[in-house]
């Protein structure tokens, strides 16, 4: 166990966690010695209540409202024509929602009969959701923006059901209506969520006609939006610093260390760890880093910035870029050296496929036998049918939109950049691009359980990790909306009662 951890945790969380963790020649924004102020920053996330929208004043529990509405969809669906069974997984973040919702084969046999059943189902669904909403409000009918949000959500759910049974014509009709009713610049979270979900579902409908679509990805734009998200919300910082703490403890008294980042992006996570390693009582180790990604140009740029930063700290450092997916490379490419402590860091996201087939990724992890694997997972299932992914992602992203909308005005440029540049891309990838039915690859529902089944052992999170996570949340007041939870050796961060990201640490029995 790492000695004196809290002092270093405190220094790392306060001195290093600056509001704009971006690279520049002076490193002033990072707050390191010789690089500008070391004071606690007054960061952008500290926003007053003037940014709270009208809908959020009336619907403070928007994610819970979405969950209950989608539960109505699941519980009241017809016994035939839409699904054969509902099976609940104990690990799902929305247990009543993420089941095996599989369209019955008989739904496609008689198009005329099927269409009639669906129209009846759509009408009943709308009545059920409206009645449910009125009951939740004490029997009163929703007015104004609340009524509009209800109508949008009802139509979106109907459209998802139509897509799930391959009624493309009906889905197309409803999508045309949705795009006219909802805008991503709307004043309410519900309207913005519906607008982006409708756009993603429209992409799926188009892909159904044209075949599988792989959109071009502007990685620089994504990385820029990711950095804005890092500045506005605590989720990314929580993932970075919690993972760093586990890596730091695994590297205790090791002279040679090797960090493999499965999707390094701009490398925002690593300056904080470098700073602490450089000030160790026993002296800094020799650090090798393998950064993986798709663009060699961006990898080289990130490597130069990290190398320059390590040089300023007086730390011995090597950087090796690999512009391929982790699951598509051979273990020999990492050139693991004898006696070297290996750490693999994997911050999972839904922006694009960063690692390739899951089974190949697992096989490579077993071959590398890392001393520590830090796994950051979104608490959302990527596997299953379209309706599986739709219901789970609707609740998940409604929660994130709600967290942004609570403190940022509807016309805030940073909010739009996060929603459009990150969240929409993830929604589109889950609904229109990803999924085993569209990629041909089986995806693990939960990597934690898969690691356990394949012989990896979970390392409990230290008390330093929890203390550090709380320090991070304290930098994003008012903190009552964000939540921390610890259980089964895993740390989770969420918004209100919904878990959004989890961090766990694992080790291989054959680790070097």
Automatic annotation (TrEMBL):
Span(s) of short sequence motif VHIID: 257-261
Region (VHIID): 226-291
PROSITE patterns the UniProt entry points to: GRAS (PS50985)
Region annotated SAW, chain positions: 432-507
Annotated region described as Leucine repeat II (LRII), given as residue ranges: 301-333
Pfam families: GRAS
Xref: InterPro entries: TF_GRAS (IPR005202)
Keywords: Transcription, Transcription regulation
The organism's place on the tree of life at top rank: Eukaryota
Similarity remark: Belongs to the GRAS family.
PANTHER family reported for this sequence: OSJNBA0084A10.13 PROTEIN-RELATED (PTHR31636)
Protein name, as recorded: Scarecrow-like protein 23
